[in-house]
Every structure is written in C-alpha cells, then in structure tokens.
Amino acid sequence: MTAGQGRPRKRVHLAAHFPGVNNTTVWSDPESGSQIAFSSFRHLARTAERGRFDFFFLAEGLRLRERGGRIHDLDVVGRPESLTVLAALAAVTSRLGLAATVNATFNEPAELARRLASLDHLSGGRAAWNVVTSSDAFTGENFRRGGYLDHADRYRRAAEFVEVARALWDSWPAGGPPRTVGHRGPQFAVEATASLPRSPQGHPVIIQAGDSDEGREFAAATADVVFSRHGTLEEGRAFYADVKRRLAAHGRSPADLKIMPGATFVLGDTEEEAAERAAGIRRRQVSPQTAIATLERVWGRDLSAYDPEGPLPEVDPVPDSDLVQGWAHAGDRFGVAAQWRARAEERKLSIRELVIELTGRQSFIGTPATVAAAIDEFVQADAADGFILVPHLTPGGLDEFVDRVVPLLQERGAFRADYEGGTLRHHLGLPAPRGTRAAADGELAAPGRPS
C-alpha cells in the first residue's frame, strides 16, 4: 500500500557513510582526497548536515588487512578511530547524528558505555553506536586475551554487552546519585558506577548490521536501526517484512526499528549519461588487482598469475588458508567457488566482470528525478525506511546528491525541509528508551512524526 492508497506518505531517512577504505571508494580519481585528514571528515559531515541527513556513519577496522604478510595497499594510509573523529565533528556540526562503529568482541561494556555517553553529552544527543562483532583470531592478536569467538557466541556477547551498557546509561536518575550496576552473566562480571548522568537521548541510538538469522533476531531484540544490504525491491521487502515481524516477540512495534540499506548512487543529466558514468565507476572500483585480490579471499591461494580479464581458475580453494587476513571470511570456500564458477560460466564472465557483479551494492543510477523517485518508491513500498548512502569519492562525493536529489525529495514531501528536533532519536522518529524515566514522563518521547 502506498501513500496514495490509504496511509500517509512515509518520510525517507538518509545517512552518509564516510567512504574510507572499502570497495566503493575510487582512489584513482583526481578529486579523491585524504581518508584521514580532518578536513575530509568535516567536508562530508557538513554536506550531510546541509542536506538535512539523519546521521554521519563511520566504519572501523581494528587491524590493517594483509595478504601474504604484507599490508593491503589501501590500508597503508591508515584507519582512524571512530569515536575520536566523531567527537571532533561534534564541534563543527549542530544537528547531524554521529554514528561510530565499535566492536563488541574486543571492548568492555563499562568503558565503552562511558565513551558513548560522553559523545552523546558533547553532541547534545546525537550519538549512535553501530554494534559489530569479530570472529577471527587475526584481529584478536591485537588484544590481551587474543583468540576469537565462535559465530553464535559473537551475538551472545554482543547482546549481553548492550544489556550492560544500557543498565549503566539508566543508572543515574534525574536529581539523584548514580546506582551501582552489578551484573553477572556468561560473558561479563561487572560491578560499576556510571561516571556521567543520563545523556540527552537517554541511550545512544543502536545500529546493527547482520543478515543471518541470529543477526536479524539480535536486531529485532536490540537495535534501533538496521544497516542492511539488499539489491532489489523484492529482496528489500522480504527482509523488511521478516525483521519487522520479529519485533512483536520482543514487545516492540514496527516504528521502533528503522531499516536502512547501504546504497551508492550515480547521477547524470540523462539516463544514458548516468549509466555510462556508473559503468566507468564500477570498473575503477574493481581494478584488475582488486579483482584478483577478491578472488584470493575465496580461493585462499596466490592467484596473481591469472589474467583478471580471463576465466576463473580451475584449481580448487585451499581450506583454512591464512593468505588473506582482515577481511570477512568466505565461509564454505568450496561452495562459494562453485557458485561463482556456475555464474561465470552461465553469463560468460571474466574474473573481473564477475567481481564487478558480485561486489556491487544497491545503487541508484539515473537523473536526479529518477533517483529521487526510486528512493521514494523503496520507502513507500516498505522495502526500506531510508538509505545509508556510500559515495565513491572522498570527501566531495555527496555534494551532487545534496544539491540535486534532496530538493526533489523535499518537493515530493518525502524528506524534511529542515531539522525539527535536536537529537538523533528525534530525527529518526524513535521512542525514548524503554524502562527509563524519560519514557515514563515523556521527557524524551519521540514526536508524532519524524523530523
């Protein structure tokens, strides 16, 4: 059912993902700038705020990626720590939400709860935490306890981590001294007293990305925003319906959770120009070296002798290979390789052409008018509540979207003309944290309509 079929038009939510080290960024472009200079973060954040976006999103890697013991080419320039960058951005923005990716596997609840509460105070209620986990021993080597967690234990630890953090955020009532939080669980034994009073939002907004059944259930129980990855309207609607359906079992309503897939965009004055630009950008995103490196993550063996414009290797993957470190594991290497071979043979694709197809995100390609209409269609069709946009250029890649697409979304009545509230929860139309005094007395209650 769309807005014209009996319900009010839904508001589109938009966020900006800083295009740091990932397979979206085109570093060879003359307009590409530094991924660690504060001027780059400031430019993109201010552009997002000028466009009235909900929040600015930073990814994070705890260890530089390696191939055969050598640092990955893109990582040699460095990867800043998220909360440090966002604390600095809090001083040069006034309404934009600030979302940090922080690992729940290799941090501790009391310490991270304090850091996030500090950002929420400094920013006037604009902090968010993207909860991620890690299961690889390569990352674990950076930390005292080392090792790794089994896949299922990652989510158990994350859920208990969020539980302890929320208890600490709730432990300092208005007008009274803080209560000591005593927690004993499978993952944590904590006896702590919060060092800060309740922050402006009560709790920072919780973001989660995970498409497994465990990830979806964790999101339904815990998250305020889901950063998903689904490429078609049909896939998006299926994911949206599944996750929203799970909320009731946790005493939550569909409005309590926003689903915002990651997406790229390419604009042109005509559809043909946009399609041509998009094809060129994809080939620059997936260079010959990148295509081979992507294949090596699945095959687990040195494939540098293979022609990226040629067919996939006939050799089998190497199980339990440590050639490539720091990327998400392929899981069943043999199964993935078989799927890739079948797709390449069916479509007559080279290595590079296959990687271009497989690694592309949801992308909006066209004139500003067609892109605005497509984004609005996804939201009105309940395939998403909005999108986290990932430009291909650092730091100016969002400028064109803000200048040319946002005004058209505003004309359609699908996007705010200006901010109406000060906190990120207000921007997203989220309720106050359950069980808090703020929820009971309306102090942080969400508005009737998102700003």
TrEMBL record:
<keyword id="KW-0503">Monooxygenase</keyword>
<dbReference type="InterPro" id="IPR051260">
    <property type="entry name" value="Diverse_substr_monoxygenases"/>
</dbReference>
<feature type="binding site">
    <location>
        <position position="212"/>
    </location>
    <ligand>
        <name>FMN</name>
    </ligand>
</feature>
<protein>
    <submittedName>
        <fullName>LLM class flavin-dependent oxidoreductase</fullName>
    </submittedName>
</protein>
<dbReference type="InterPro" id="IPR036661">
    <property type="entry name" value="Luciferase-like_sf"/>
</dbReference>
<keyword id="KW-0560">Oxidoreductase</keyword>
<feature type="binding site">
    <location>
        <position position="151"/>
    </location>
    <ligand>
        <name>FMN</name>
    </ligand>
</feature>
<feature type="domain" description="Luciferase-like">
    <location>
        <begin position="31"/>
        <end position="381"/>
    </location>
</feature>
<feature type="binding site">
    <location>
        <position position="155"/>
    </location>
    <ligand>
        <name>FMN</name>
    </ligand>
</feature>
<dbReference type="InterPro" id="IPR016215">
    <property type="entry name" value="NTA_MOA"/>
</dbReference>
<dbReference type="Pfam" id="PF00296">
    <property type="entry name" value="Bac_luciferase"/>
</dbReference>
<keyword id="KW-0288">FMN</keyword>
<feature type="binding site">
    <location>
        <position position="101"/>
    </location>
    <ligand>
        <name>FMN</name>
    </ligand>
</feature>
<dbReference type="InterPro" id="IPR011251">
    <property type="entry name" value="Luciferase-like_dom"/>
</dbReference>
<comment type="similarity">
    <text>Belongs to the NtaA/SnaA/DszA monooxygenase family.</text>
</comment>
<feature type="region of interest" description="Disordered">
    <location>
        <begin position="426"/>
        <end position="451"/>
    </location>
</feature>
<keyword id="KW-0285">Flavoprotein</keyword>
<dbReference type="GO" id="GO:0004497">
    <property type="term" value="F:monooxygenase activity"/>
</dbReference>
<dbReference type="GO" id="GO:0016705">
    <property type="term" value="F:oxidoreductase activity, acting on paired donors, with incorporation or reduction of molecular oxygen"/>
</dbReference>
